[in-house]
Each structure stands twice: as C-alpha cells, then as structure tokens.
C-alpha cells in the first residue's frame, strides 16, 4: 500500500470499495462472535439435556456484561481515534489507545472480583431455579476468570479499525472464537464435561484472542500504543472516550439486562420457556450480529470524514451503508423464517421447549430486518460525537421502551406479550434514531458552513493586509526531515497564498532539460554521492562515465542531472514568488541573490514514525529504520557541496517543530513571518 492509501483511501477510493473493505472484516468478526455464542448452546444441546440449555440461556446475558464493558472502550476509543486521525492528531490517538488498554485491565479485574464475590446474589436476581442453580453457577464462576481478557479482545477488535487495519482487527476475534468453537465439542462431548467444558472453552478462546492484540502492539506493528507510559486521563482523553463509549455500550448492557429481565419473567412459565426464549434470541442474533458488524465497520469511516469536515463523502458512505444493511437484513430474515424449524431443532429436543423456541423466534424475527439501518444510524451518531443522542437511543430501545413494555404486555397478553415487547421497542427505537440523527447531522453541517465562511472572511482580511506590504517577490524554500509533514505544510502555504508549488514537478523539468529519464533522475537525487560534480565525484571513487546529453556535453549523467536541476530551480525562482520543497533550493538561490525565506520542518522521531507507519502500512520499527536512512541521505546530499549543515537551526531562517504545531498552524506562521519581513505574495 503506497503513501496515498490506508487512511487517505477513505476519501479517495470508491464508496462501495471503502465500505466493503472495512465492513466485511467487521462482519466476519461479529459472525465469529455469533458462532461462538451459538456453539455453546448447540453443543450443549447435543447432550439432550434442555436444563443445561436453560442454564446457559440464563448465564449468557450476565457474561455478556463483560463484552459490553469492552465496548465502552472499544466503540468510544474508535470514535475518538478515528476523528483524531482525520484531524492529524497522531500522538493524541496513541494516548487514547493506551487509556483504552489499561482501562480494560482495571475494569475487567474489578468486575471479575465482584462477580465471584456476589455470585449467589446474582443467580437469585436472574431467576435461576433449583434445577439449574449449580449448572449456571459453575458456568458463570469459570467464565468470570477471564474478565480482563474479554474486555481487551472486544475493545481492540474495534480500535484497530480506527487506524485503517480492519483485517487485523478481525483476526483477534477470529482466532479466539474459532478456538472456542473447536474446543466446545472436545470438552463438552468428548471429555464429557458438559456445561463446565463450555465455560473452559470460553475462557481459553477469550484469553488467546486478547493475547493476539497484545502481541500485535508489543511487536511495534501499530501506530497506536498500549504502553503504560502513554496512559493518561488528562486532555479529555478519558472523558472523550467515555462520553461516546458509555452510551454505545449501554445498548449491550441493557440488552443483557433486558435478557435477564425476560428470563426472570419467563421463569414464571418454567425452565422450558426459558430455554425457548434463549434459543429465540440466538436466532435473531444471526441478523443482529451482522448488523452490528456493518455499523461498527462503517463508524471509523464516518468519524474520519467528520474530522475532515467532508460531509459530502460522509453522506455517500452512510447512504450506501444503509442500503446495504437493509438488503442484507431482508435476505437473512427471510432465510431464518424459512429454516426456523431446523434451526431450533439443533438446540432443543423436548417438544415443549421446541414449540416455545419456534414461536418465540417467529415473533422476534418480525423486525430483525430493521437492525442494519438502526445500527448504521447509531454508529453515525457516535462518529459525529453526538453523545447525548446516542445515549437516548441506546437506553430507549432496551431500557426505557423495552423493559416497561415487557411487564405491561406480559400482564395484558401473557407469555406471548413478553416476546412481542422486543419488536415494539425496535420500531419505536428506529423512528427515534432517524429523528435524532436528522437534528444532529443538519446542526453539524451548518456549523461546518459557518466555520468555512469565517475562515474565508479571515483569509480575505489577511490577503488585504498582505497586499499593503508589497515590496519584492520571495521564494519560500522548505527543507524537511522525513515524515515531519514538510511537504504538506509547503503545499498549504502555496495554496493559501495562491502561488506556485514545486516538488515532484521539478523532476519532470530536470528530466526534460537534461534528456535523462525522469525515474533515473529521481534515483540520482536520492543519493548524495551522485550529486558530486566533476572532480569531486571522481575523487570519491565513483564512476565518471561521460555522456553528451542536451545542453551539457561530456559530463557524467549524475552531473548533468544536478546541473539541470540547478537551472530549473533558478528559472522557476525568476518567474516570481513560489514555494519549493527540498532539492537544495535554498543553497542554489541564496548564491544568486534571490530573495528567499528558508524553512526547515521537523518533528519528534516517534511522531514521524507513527505518521509513516500509518501512511505506508509499515510497523513502527520499519518506519524508524526508513527515517534513519532517508534523513541520512538528505543530510549527505545537502551537505555535500556546501558548508551549511542540513537540519541545523542556523542554516535556515525558520525551524519548526511539528510536535508543537498542527499543519495549518505551521503554514500560518510561515505566511505571517514572510509577509511581515517584506515578501511579495
């Protein structure tokens, strides 16, 4: 992947390509979560003991609380990190990532301890009967041991998508869940451990999945960080994550709570009713999990567009995602309806439990085709940082609407009414989501228009001020350490001052002038030794083969290229004000008396490595190695024909540390100094 792709591909690739590229791995990860959730129930069902199925149905919503807490850091962190990348704030993104990691560790340990201490009280609260008490207790006690690992796995399966790594985000979940599915039949059936085997397989799968992400970071493969030294709760790191993560996770938390309440109500109708509703919920998870995956895959794309204030691209991505998710939802819902008897029979064998399972599944499937659009809209709100709106929707669907509806409909219509409470909540929630989204979207879009107008007005005033200081043309030359963003700063300066910008364009002119191939000229200029002219070049032992090319007879090809570049730079400067990147332009023009303003742009090596790793899809170590090589070549090139020292502050009129400035701030600083010192723009 070249330097223009990865995160920047969000705004350059086709909408369909960028959505599918990010959504498919997220969907596959959620499919593995689905398989993982179905596997325990399926293989326990093969024991032909529906009491064990009922026990798992009772315990699973409680265990899912761990996953919900992981979503606090995963979804909240993804939203903040994707917007930070869109704004160019790479170091802030690293701090957010570290906060998410250690937040998962701390909260995971705390909640695991609480579960183990208050296990009996929890079992009584969720309505466990005497027949399923020991079964549910064994399962929950064992799975509680992997609490921190569950949080880490669920967190970073989201966060890695924010840095443009959807495939790696998927792999941790894929590996952990696949291992769980493999171990289930071995431990449940082959070893005869029954529900205890399901719990042990769950623990092993989650530990291995979390270790995958930890190893990924420790190997330096990421531009983000889990290093404790980067951990902080300051600068709104903690609050920014939690203000999005808590509302987002409330959906999962309330889903667990609503399942617990449903099971508690269903306990009035017996253990077979609990087994039936447990299977019914798992059937709708087929559409629900895929819808969640689509929403989570799209969220970092939308967040990046929000950071860039690119609302046109944002709308196109969301529109495509809504159509895609709606179509997928209809197809999956239809398939589930057609195969409902076969699906339920894979989990339940006793006639009473089977009948409950089929009836409950059919009721719940009436609105499952709406899950895709619902989760897309919810993730769109999270991407815009709309914490309040996201909170309202999430607490409404599974809390404010569902829980009262479950009790009311149970009182009015009995057992079927309990199940119909969920479709009612789904319809009302999506109506609410559409209303809130419309309000937030139009408000943020209007704010963008106002910001752009303010900037245009400021730019107009600045231009008028600059025109009052017309004296003589100035050439702004920009040298830069590799990965510091000097080229971006230079281009921004040129655009804002409406003057020419030269970088790679010079190569084409040099090649044309000298008669050499453009790619050959590029290779020459990257090696300092190739820029020695005449005797200096020969004295160092390099080839001095003479050629006749263009206007430069009987010189080495390297010497021809250097002389042509010098001529091109002088001709460009003679035309008037401009910005020239690198290529020793400051040295060349200072000698012939051109009015120049020389700038050197650098940044801390860690920040440069992070930028390059994201831009070029490299590990941090690979990026650091390339920085050392390219900086060395640029220094040798610059220093080879001059007493000036590349990168030294006294060589330039201005040196800028990009660790202290945003790109636009650095550009404005250069413009301010140049105009005040008498340059013509």
Brief digest:
The chain is mainly alpha-helical. The protein has helices spanning 9-12, 15-45, 50-86, 90-117, 119-125, 133-143, 147-162, 166-190, 195-218, 237-266, 271-308, 311-338, 340-345, 351-364, 371-383, 387-400, 402-413, 415-467, 486-497, 504-514, 518-525, 534-539, 557-574, 585-591, 605-616, 620-639, 663-676, and strands spanning 472-473, 475-480, 501-502, 547-549, 552-555, 578-581, 596-602, 654-657, 679-680. A hairpin with a 2-residue loop joins strand 4 and strand 5.
State the major sheet: 5 strands, parallel
Across the major sheet, the strand order is 3-6-2-7-8
> How large a portion of the residues is in β-strands, by DSSP E?
under 5%
Counting DSSP E segments of at least 2 residues, the number of strands comes to: 9
Number of helices: 27
Give the CA-based shape. elongated
Chain-averaged pLDDT: 80
Radius of gyration, taken over Cα atoms and rounded to an integer in Å:
31 Å
Instruction: Give helix % range.
Output: over 70%
The structural class is mainly alpha
Q: How far from one another are the termini? A: 38 Å
Q: Enumerate the spans where pLDDT stays under 50 for 5 or more consecutive residues.
A: 1-5, 464-470, 528-555
Describe this structure in words.
- With 681 residues, the protein is mainly alpha-helical.
- The protein has 27 helices and 9 strands.
- Strands 3-6-2-7-8 form a 5-stranded parallel β-sheet, with helices on both faces.
- Helix 6 (133-143) runs parallel beside helix 9.
- The chain starts with 8 loop residues before the first helix and ends with a strand.
